[in-house]
Amino acid sequence: MARLVAQAAGILTAIILLLLVISLHLSTNGQILTAFVYTDSGTRYFVLLDTRRNLPYWIHQPIEALRGVYFSPNGRRALIPYGETSQLMRLAIFDLTTQRLIRNIGEYDTCSPSYDALVWSPNSRYVLFDCKPTAAAPGSSGLHIMDYEAQRTWKVASGQFSGLSLWSPNGESLLINGSEILNLSSDIRQHLPPGAWLARWLPDSSHAILVIDDDILFDDGTIISADLSVAPTFFEVSPDGHYLAFVAQEKGLQRLYVVNLTTFERTLLDGGDLKIDAVQRGVWSPDAKWIAVEALNEWGSRDLYLIAPDTNRAYWVAEDAILPIWSPDSTHLAYLALNRSSITGDQLVVWDVASQAVKLTIDDAEQAAWSIDGLVHIRRVFGHSSYVPRQLYLDEHRMLNRNIISFAIWEHNHD
After folding, report:
1. What stretches of 261-373 adopt beta strand conformation (E)?
2. 301 φ/ψ angles, rounded to the nearest 5 degrees
3. pTM of the model
4. pLDDT reading at 75 higher than 60
5. What pLDDT, on a 0 to 100 scale, did the predictor assign at position 227?
6. Which domains does the chain have, with CATH numbers?
7. What are phi and psi of 20, to 5 degrees?
């Protein structure tokens, strides 16, 4: 780990004042990837940094009007939207293994991809994107799939992207706007019951779960739960695939329920005496033993709780707490403690589940994510300059050391 720090620090010292951080990503194998923009003689380029392998990738081909970098789940590829004008955008993919940049895979000349809808498949092979007609490309809109391995792009559906277009966890099937499921290997389409407005996949990719009116059902029509007004704020399958947790609106309350996906037994989770009945959102722990729940209290601020789905046992964690994220082993929960003062930023708090105690606090936090090495977070250092430094940190997973990696990224403050 010390060698990692030394090498990462050495790499970054030389570029500390040249770059703008544009993304922070953790791949499925836990490596930390960051993307930066740098400018040379008025032309924009970018650099990717893999902090786990201590490798910076400098992309010296110019990227016009760079709009972001979207890393594949396995961390080996980066999707780069670019374009000379806002009316005509194109897509390039950079392969971090071969260090090859490929522009315009396949044909989609009749429309312009929208950077609001660019989604990698979980197997890191495909990219789903919404292509829209513009003055520069006056064609028909529709959902397209770009296949990096086969080097082709094709249209799979008319209309625009919606939240009901979801990849299956294995990346081989696509739920298209809640109306059909396309299997990419067989090219077979399964038409679904009409009227779906919310959907999720089972972790094993065997079925999609749909909400139609007040009913929850599998894609084959099997009813899971009926006659509850489901709220879109939280509707998630447990990581082990045994339960579905969701918020239902009842008599002005927002209550949390779980349904056993084998027996279809439905259980109210309100924490017993805690009477948690204004649930806003929730997050399953990776081991499926807990749900971290944000709920409004009587003063209108958000309390954070842990609820066990099998026993309804609950613990109050904190007030004015949002955006909980779990460590990979489910032993720690990190969340943002809101600071309502305009002088300083929010506080990132790490809570130990076993001891039910705060393990670590980090001031002025903006972003956070768990890696296999620890908690990665960006801190904003406040000052009077028009440029505000952001610092990227890695806290070792067991919280024994702090600031394993620390370097400043300067970003202009437009506020």
Report:
1. 266-269, 279-284, 291-296, 302-307, 314-319, 321-326, 332-337, 346-352, 357-370
2. -90, 170
3. 0.81
4. yes
5. 87
6. 16-159 (2.120.10.30), 227-405 (2.120.10.30)
7. -120, 120
